[in-house]
Structure formats: structure tokens, C-alpha cells
Amino acid sequence: MGDQRIKNIILEIISVVAPDAEITDVKADVRLRDQLDLDSMDFLDIVMELRKRYKIEIPKEEYPELATLDSCAAYLGPKLAAVPA
Amino acid sequence: MDYDVIIIGAGMSGLAAGIRLAYFGKRVCILEKHYAFGGLNSYYRLDGRDFDVGLHAVTNFVGPGVRGTPLPKLLRQLRMSRNDFDLQPQVFSEIRFPGVSLRFTNDLNDLIADVAEKFPAEADRFRKLCEHVRDFDDVVLLSDYQSTRETLKEFLHEPMLIEMLLCPIMYYGSAEEHDMDFLQFVIIFKSLYCEGFARPRDGVRKIIKALVKKFRSCGGELRMQTAVERLDVADDRVTSVAIGGGETLTCSTVLSSAGYVETMRFCEDGPTVPADEVGRVSFVETIAVLDKLPQQLGHEAAIVFFNDCETFTYAMPEVPVDLRSGVVCCPSNYEGHDDMPEGLLRMTWLANSGVWMADGEEAYRQRKIDYLSEFKTQARRYVADFDEHFVVSDMFTPRTIQRFTGRVNGAVYGSPRKRRDGRTHLKNLFLCGTDQGYLGIIGALLSGITIANMHVLAEE
Ligand SMILES: Cc1cc2nc3c(=O)[nH]c(=O)nc-3n(C[C@H](O)[C@H](O)[C@H](O)COP(=O)(O)OP(=O)(O)OC[C@H]3O[C@@H](n4cnc5c(N)ncnc54)[C@H](O)[C@@H]3O)c2cc1C
User: Fold this and answer.
1) Which residues of B touch A42 (CB under 8 A)?
2) Which residue minimizes the CA distance to atom 10 of ligand 1?
3) Cα gap B115→B193, rounded to integer Å
4) How many A×B Cβ pairs under 8 Å?
5) Each residue's pLDDT tens digit in chain B (460 positions)?
6) What is the residue range of A76's domain?
7) Per the structure, how many domains does chain A have?
8) Is any Cβ of chain B less than 8 angstroms from the Cβ of A40?
9) Domain containing A71 — which CATH number?
10) C-alpha torsion B404→B392→B169→B85, nearest 10
11) Separation of CA B85 and ligand 1 centre (Å)
């Protein structure tokens, strides 16, 4: 799955987890938490939505890999490779 | 049947926990012994009129742009929107003590200004207290008990101001008599004075129906008129849940919103609960229907908290009802509520549950009638003389509360000892709602969410 597609998936999930967050110009290299005011409850939800939708497991120690859109793409790429495009 | 999670109780906390779990694909069943949802904050119909069991105010109200407080947090977590709750803000509420009253709104600055006017010497100190409350860490799950009365004395010098601030806070969420844990004080101070009051135009049914619909649409199962009778235990775990008719259900985890004492009684091996952990605080609530809206009779406050002496006593009284203090709610005094077909007034007093429980049927009925006339007397003093506009009334007592929710002593706020991490002596049994410690409608919703997240969703 391409990087842009993964970023769109994350943004779509954020729009469900935090519908009042303004996601139109999120910077890919800045921490999501710093630009979107997501708290730890919301972060847990992003992980849970990924599990619900794509059956991928993310261990707690690896949550920091989801800090920015760029790091999400890099980290989730291999995990989502199995998911049909 | 085998479930991932069984939840005891379809009140606010059970429904919120259920939505979280069902949404994330858990097989969840909520068991509710009553035929109605909503628990302590349910609704009913009587002689063609809709009533709420308890609703005075939904606390923690903030406007659409505000983030990070309990209301927007829980809406996010439940994947619901502000429209689902139809919350209409109050205009103002009052705290009335002999010779002085304070007015508060959904903007803390109004209370700060009123304190400065009525208690000029306290203005700066009150502002410091507000800052202390704002900066206090109220999301910790474990903390040492800190006396609110002692803490407030460090900030404020005027004893009556302390009593006035405590009156609404204790009425809206203290399971403890006389004093309370400062952490609980902070949580409720924010929910009342920093955030504020609102109400759905159709009353609490709007919220409950939205929660039930959401739960079902996520695939959750709800079994009404199904009381849990026993939790079977082996190796420090619940192994099965016995409901009426000899049926048993199995599951990996049980969340109970029935209360700590009540839940321990279901457990085969339940520990004996010390007497001082059994809740005692209960209320009598009278609802009067009027043929005019109270605002047409000159009463404009949404809620009035009154106390007729300089000190405020929050405890189970010796007498059936403590008439010295109380709370009057006028539902039509919320924005957008002035087209209500009839006027409504609700008055709450502290009550002695033992007296109300012990009455025979006839004595019980008579006692209710006696207190209806006390209600009219007090309404004359704090609201308006509405005798000629009185249509009909209904009344709840500790006995009603115990009968419909199973809460021992009709203790609305449950045990004075809260278990904030939700844990019990069994590894797969957790408490949510009242005895976990987040109180009121918004508190109970947040409690269900927190416990579902902490002990089921984050555990995998
Ligand atoms: C008169 C009154 C007025 C109130 N006013 C307000 C207000 O204006 N604003 C506010 O925020 N809060 C108010 N409250 C408080 C608020 O209603 C409660 O704090 C909140 O509803 C508690 O929710 P809960 O989920 O913890 O418990 P509950 O609502 O008690 O839910 C527990 C559920 O478990 C069920 N149950 C118990 N035993 C069993 C069993 N063995 N098997 C199956 N089911 C069982 C009960 O029937 C109940 O439905 C009021 C309460 C009362 C009584």
C-alpha cells in the first residue's frame, strides 16, 4: 500500500476518533498530537481503529511509531502490505 | 451463551461501557433487572405525562469549540455528536443562604464577580482557589484522601462562603457525609462552576434512547428484566453469571454498575463489607406539575440550592427529611425550553432512608402527603406561591430508589469509599459507575468508558 494511501487512512481514522479536529492541512513531519490536540484516549482509539479495520496489532512499546503521518506510513507500510489495495 | 463481556446494569455507566466494547467488536451483553433503561436517571410516563426520575441538570456543559473536558471527551469516545444529547444551556442558578445569595452561570467569571461583590475580602482568595482547582490533577486513579473542609480553610477565611460553595457540590455528588475528598470536590467544582448546566428539551430520555440505539447499532445485546442473582467463582475469577430461571451465562470479564456492596452480595465468596463503606446518603424528590411556567410567576433560576442557616449540614438526618436545605430545579428555565406545555418544579431534600423503608403502606402514603405540603411551603419561600397553579405531583423516596435500582439504603451516590481503578477481589470482575467514583450522568458515562478501556480494550 502506498505512503499516501496510508496517510489518508490515518486521517480518515482521526476524523472518526476526533470529528471536531481540523484535518485539512496536517503536516506530515510534525507530531500529530502537537497539531491536532489528541489526548492519550484518542491515541488508544487510533490504534484500536487500525485493529478493528485491518486486524493489525500494535504493541504498546511501538505506539511512538505513530507520532507523525510520515512515521505512520513507514511503520504501517509492511503491516498493511498484506491488505488488498 | 458465552460472551466476551457481561455488564450488570443498563444505567449510564453500563450503556457507555457497552458501546465502547461493542463498537470494537466484543461480544457484549448488558443485563438489566428493570424493564426500563437508565437506572438512577431513568424516565417514565404517568397519566399521559412524561417524567424524568432524576434529571435536574446535565453537568459539565461546554460550548461547541471547547476540547479536553469530560463532555467532548466522552462524545468522541462514544462516536456520538452533541446533537445526540440536544443539550440546552442554563441561564443561571443560585445558592441562597440567610441574607446572601450567589449566582453562577456556565461562565466561571460570573461566579468570581459575584463572590467579589458579596464577599469583597475574599475576592483574591477565591480566585486563588479557582486556580488551584484548575491546576489540580484530577485524572489520577490513586491518591490519598484529603479533607475538603480543611483545604478550603487554607484558602478562604469567610466560613459562610465555604458552606455556600460546598452546598451544590455535595448535593450533586458526595457519597460521604459532612466532608469529602478534595479530589472529588475538584471534579465536581469543575463540572458545576467551571463548566456548567444544560438539559435536553425532551429530558433524559433523549440521552438514554441515543445511547441504547448506539449500543444496539454496534451489535450489543441488551436483556431487560434479567436480574443477576449470583456470580459463581473459582480461582479468584467469575466463572459464570446466574440469572433467574436457572439460566447461567459465561464470559471472560464482568463489569458491574450495581454498586460495590450490591455486587459483593452476588459473589459466592463476597467479602463482608464494613459498615462504614455502605452508603447512607439518600434523598426525597418531589415533582410538581403546574399550569403555568415558573418564569411566568417570576422565578427564573434553573436551579436554586438553599440552606436556611449559616452552616450547611450534609448528612443523613435523624428525621424523615431535613427541611433546612434543599435543591429546586425548574426545567423550563433552560434555553429553548419556554415552550414546555406545563410548568415543572422538582425539589430535593436529604432523607433518612431507614424511616421511609420501615413504614407500612398506609403510613408511607400519608408521609408522602405530609411532605407534599412542606414542599409547597418551601416553594413559596424559594420559588413563588404556586398553590393555585398546582396540577399534580409525584414523589420519590429512598424506598423508591432502592426498589428500582437495587441500591442499598437508596444511597444515590453509593459507597463513601470509591474504587477508582475499578478492581475487586476477583481478577475478571470490575466496577463501573457510581462506586468506581465518577458521579452524575456525565461522570457515570465517563466511568463506563474508562473502565472498559482500562480493563478490556487496553488489556489485549
Ligand atoms: C433523584 C435523582 C436525581 C438525580 N439528578 C441528577 C442530575 O440532575 N444530574 C446528574 O448528573 N446526575 C443526577 N443524579 C445522579 C445520576 O443519576 C447517577 O449518578 C447516575 O445515573 C449513576 O449511573 P450508574 O450507571 O453508576 O448507576 P445506575 O444508574 O444505578 O445503574 C445501575 C443499573 O444496574 C441495575 N442493576 C442493579 N442490580 C442489578 C442486578 N442484580 N441485575 C441486573 N441489573 C441490576 C439497576 O437496575 C440500574 O439500572 C440523580 C440521581 C437521582 C436518584
Assistant:
1) 76
2) B440
3) 12
4) 28
5) 799 999 999 999 999 999 999 999 999 999 999 999 999 999 999 999 999 998 999 999 999 989 889 999 999 999 999 999 999 999 999 999 999 999 999 999 999 999 999 999 999 999 999 999 999 988 777 788 999 999 999 999 999 999 999 999 999 999 999 999 999 999 999 999 999 999 999 999 999 999 999 999 999 999 999 999 999 999 999 999 999 888 999 999 999 999 999 999 999 888 899 999 999 999 999 999 999 999 999 999 999 999 999 999 999 999 999 999 999 999 999 999 999 999 999 999 999 999 999 999 999 999 999 999 999 999 999 988 888 999 999 999 999 999 999 999 999 999 999 999 999 999 999 999 999 999 999 999 999 999 999 999 987 6
6) 3-81
7) 1
8) no
9) 1.10.1200.10
10) 70
11) 18
pTM score of the predicted model: 0.96
Ligand 1 center from residue B294 Cα (angstroms): 28
CB-based contact B24 A48, cutoff 8 Å: yes
Q: What is the amino acid identity at position B179?
A: D
B410, B324 contact by CB (below 8 A): no
Strand B248-256 vs strand B429-431: parallel, antiparallel, or unpaired? parallel
How close does chain B come to A12, measured CA to CA in Å? 14
- Measured from CB, residues less than 6 Å from any atom of ligand 1 are B 8-14, 31-34, 39-41, 54-57, 59, 227-228, 257-258, 262, 283, 285, 396, 401, 405-406, 412, 433-434, 439-441, 444
C-alpha grid cell, residue B110: 460570573
Beta carbons within 10 angstroms of residue B246's beta carbon: 7
Query: Measured in whole angstroms, how far is the alpha carbon of residue B126 from the centre of its chain?
Result: 26
